[in-house]
Amino acid sequence: MSKRAGVLAIQGDFDAHRRILESLGVMVIPVLFAKDLDQIDVLVLPGGESTTIAKGMARLGLYEPLKSRIAAGLPVLGTCAGAILLAREVENHAVPVLGVLDVRATRNAYGTQVDSFAATLNGGADPRLEGLRCIFIRAPRLSDPGPEVTVLARVDDNPVFVQQSNVLAATFHPELADDTRVHARLLELL
Q1: Predicted confidence (pLDDT) at residue 4 exceeds the cutoff of 60
Q2: 134 is catalytic
Q3: pLDDT: is 128 or 68 the higher one?
Q4: Does the N terminus or the C terminus of the chain have fewer Cβ atoms within 10 A?
Q5: Burial of 142 (0-12, 13-18, 19+ CB in 10 A)
Q6: pLDDT (tens digit, 9 = 90+) per residue, 139-189?
């Protein structure tokens, strides 16, 4: 049986995630309804606007089904806004969260759209990610990680890629770089 990845398709550049996952040999299913979760082996919560995505998740009744599937072990990757939605709490205009990742997320921690930047990963628990080019757009900052959270990569000593069991979160947009390492890391959780 081939691997099947879901990409939450409410808002954000979910199509860029689809292209990367397909380049890794994975069939991709857009996720808009709870029944879509039954068809996938891994899930990506893309970047975008976290308020818009949160409202869409509420409107579509996805909060509880997502929490249940992730708690049952579904590997998930949240990028930028997706990382915010995975966190236990949010600062700077809080949105409803799934609470499956023991970190605090601060929305727009590096500034507004004009403050977007690119940086190279340095330091962290996964040397395979060293040198990865990361694109930060209105990026959150992750802080106060719980004891079960591993910081996989940092930029300027800030955690930018973390893992807690089957949950991965990146504060940057790996789908915008020409590099598959972050998505490959998600597939390793299968």
Answers
A1: yes
A2: no
A3: 68
A4: N
A5: buried
A6: 999 999 999 999 999 888 889 999 999 999 999 999 998 899 999 999 999
Task: Note if 173 is an active site residue.
Answer: yes
pLDDT band at 105 (very low <50, low <70, confident <90, very high): very high
Mean pLDDT of the chain: 93
Q: Active-site residue among 17, 80, 134, 183?
A: 80
Q: How many CA atoms lie within 13 A of 98 on its CB side?
A: 29
- DSSP type of residue 114: G
- Is the separation of the CB atoms in 85 and 49 below 8 Å? no
pTM: 0.94
Q: Which domains are present in the chain? A: 4-188 (3.40.50.880)
181-188 helix and 14-23 helix, angle to the nearest 10 degrees: 70
Token couple for 13: 């550049």
Active site residue 64: no
Q: Which two tokens stand for residue 15?
A: 């199509």
Which amino acid, one-letter code, is at 17? H
**Cβ atoms of residues 7 and 18 within 8 Å:** yes
Active-site residue, selected from the candidate residues 17, 134, 173, 183: 173
Closest CA to 39 of 54, 27, 48, 57: 27
